[in-house]
Specification:
This protein has one domain: P1 Nuclease, CATH 1.10.575. Helices cover 61% and strands 4% of the residues. Helix 6 packs across helix 12 and helix 8 packs antiparallel against helix 13. It is globular, with a radius of gyration of 19 Å. The termini are far apart. About 4% of the residues have low confidence. The protein binds zinc ion (ZN). Zinc ion binds next to helix 5 and helix 8.
Length: 264
């Protein structure tokens, strides 16, 4: 009896000890972006999207592409979530790089998904899959470390502490800064969702290359500002939370732009 208990205990510890490698905005980060996007959909786009997603909101469907990672059948989608940009790019350099980009990454797949969703003949099951992926990836590329370096897996290998607990730079930007605010995703979205029509027009005109340039520049800044072993806490939150919120706001507004163009 006793041995059995300890065996179970050890197994449980082993399961929870495995350090999880985070690879996307956390659950709430995605929902916040999705909730903001939803607020800017045209009635026509909202109706068309609802017809595809059923009872799932844009905010909730935002997490699907991360949740399926536990199913090996979806392993082929893994590299769609990010693009490795290994240095600080100027805009012309980045445009040249993207022009010849043939890898399976967030940039090539965003273009693929948008092109597919434009096709009136697209099969129903693909429509759902592609819409869910599109929503998720537009959000992901606004997390600066989704455009990070190959060598450290987008900051996953930059080991830092968050309020004294082991973490990494990628994870701090995916979840920890957001969770630290202690707001639900709807509360969070209403806190940061303030834009003028002129700002939205400008953001929704920006091409994908510009979204990536901004994330690349921000990622480079974060790398330069962080050393392995740093204990990030209040000061880091104060320094970066507005920038992080801006990124989520931009993701939401731009996602609405893409969805309105496809379905509006
Ligand atoms: Zn992701």
């Amino acid at each position: 009896m006793k041995t059995n208990f300890f065996r179970k205990l050890i197994l449980l510890i082993a399961i929870f000890y495995v350090p999880l490698q985070s690879m996307a905005w956390g659950t709430n980060g995605h929902r916040i972006c999705g909730q903001i996007a939803d607020s800017y959909l045209t009635p026509k786009a909202r109706k068309a999207i609802q017809a595809i997603l059923g009872n799932e909101s844009v905010a909730i469907t935002s997490n699907w592409a991360d949740f399926i990672k536990s199913d090996p059948a979806y392993n082929y989608l893994y590299t769609w979530h990010f693009i490795d940009l290994d240095k600080a790019y100027t805009y012309p350099e980045l445009q040249a790089y993207l022009k010849q980009d043939t890898s399976t990454d967030a940039y090539t797949k965003l273009n693929f998904l948008i092109a597919e969703l434009k096709k009136p003949t697209l099969a129903k099951n693909n429509k759902l899959l592609y819409l869910r992926m599109l929503i998720h990836i537009v959000e992901d590329v606004h997390q600066p470390l989704h455009t990070g370096h190959t060598s450290d897996k987008g900051g996953n290998d930059v080991k830092v502490q968050w309020f004294g607990k082991d973490s990494n730079l990628h994870s701090v930007w995916d979840s920890q800064l957001i969770d630290f605010q202690q707001l639900s995703y709807t509360e969070y979205a209403s806190m940061i969702n303030h834009t003028t029509a002129a700002q939205r027009t400008k953001l929704q005109k920006d091409p994908i290359s510009e979204w990536l340039l901004e994330s690349n520049q921000l990622a480079e800044k974060l790398y330069a500002d962080t050393k392995t072993g740093d204990n990030l806490s209040y000061k880091y939150n104060f320094k970066y939370i507005d920038i992080l919120n801006q990124q989520m706001l931009k993701a939401g507004v731009r996602l609405a732009g893409v969805l309105n163009e496809l379905f509006g």
